[in-house]
Please model this.
Amino acid sequence: MSRAFETECVHAGVGPEPATGAVVTPVYLTSTYVQPEVGQHAGFEYSRTQNPSRLALERHLAALEGAAYGHAFSSGLAATDAVLRLLSPGDHVLLPDDAYGGTIRLALRVHAPAGLEVETVDLTDLDAVRGALRPTTRLVWVETPTNPLLRIVDIEGVAAVAAGAGVLVAVDSTFATPALQRPLTLGADLAVHSTTKYLGGHSDVVGGFVATSNEALATRLAFLQNAVGAVPGPMDCFLVQRGAKTLAVRMDRHCANAAAVVGLLDGHPAVDRVLWPGLPDAPGHAVAARQMRGFGGMVSFTVKGGEAAALEVCRRTEVFTLAESLGAVESLIEHPGRMTHASVAGTTNEVPSNLVRLSVGIEAASDLVADLSQALA
Model:
């Protein structure tokens, strides 16, 4: 029977452990498995290739994405790398011009020297996407909302343009999670996540995930997962799966708290501009309202007074912790230009020096608003 997403978070792909009936999937801390005869095994032979803890996580997250297949990786960038490895030297890939700095670094400094043709483009402009497609284009890499400018890309629109040219579409949906956005239902071929973030949700694990319903892509990803070996350990899988069970309720609070924070920032005399797709005048608001169930817990804003003022705001918060990463229960604040996006400093993808990024947690909204208020005073 059809079940609500909140129910799927708790139960999808998860069943009692067959040997003991354990409600929670055990942590299978084993590297190898007994084979009763040469070449015969019960589905597991070596834990780089497959592990019961990883299999349980992959089934769980694939179900949340509405995907037929799922593959877990050791980090979000390992998942991104696996998708880029689906391509061949000479192939052309389009990336957002404001993608996560690590994605751009991986594409331009690792895959481009190996022969991949990488181009960044404004994916919010479908005419620009059409104009950038070449006969050799094999992939459009979408990030929505983008990190850290929170721009919104029309997944259905990009998918329609790409499908007409026989081009794959992969969507980094880390900021939205399956609770707010399901790219495969909007026409994408692959959905990619850093499970370090909202899916894990507790700042205690690093991981990545790729979902697809394309059997050929899934077969190739499984090969790459095993051949390259960038797989998560069983304890990592356990922690991500435990976090995913509370994803729906956490995202509700993240979204509500972000709205409260935006209520303070929007129009504040120390703030130049607020970037959050939930604002009615945000450039991507209409698209976000159509393809997302909520506007997310990430908020960025620019501070009047330039970089020095932005750094001072980051220094002064008390409830918001100054740290990289995002998507966990605790609220985080960071300066992208000096921290997460330092790798694109001095390039055309450089972020504004007065930009501050917030990962709004699940604390009391009143405490978060009060903390930002005193930091901005």
Residues 247-265 form the longest helix (19 residues). The mean pLDDT is 95. The domain at 247-376 is CATH 3.90.1150.10 (Aspartate Aminotransferase, domain 1). DSSP finds 13 helices and twelve strands in the chain.
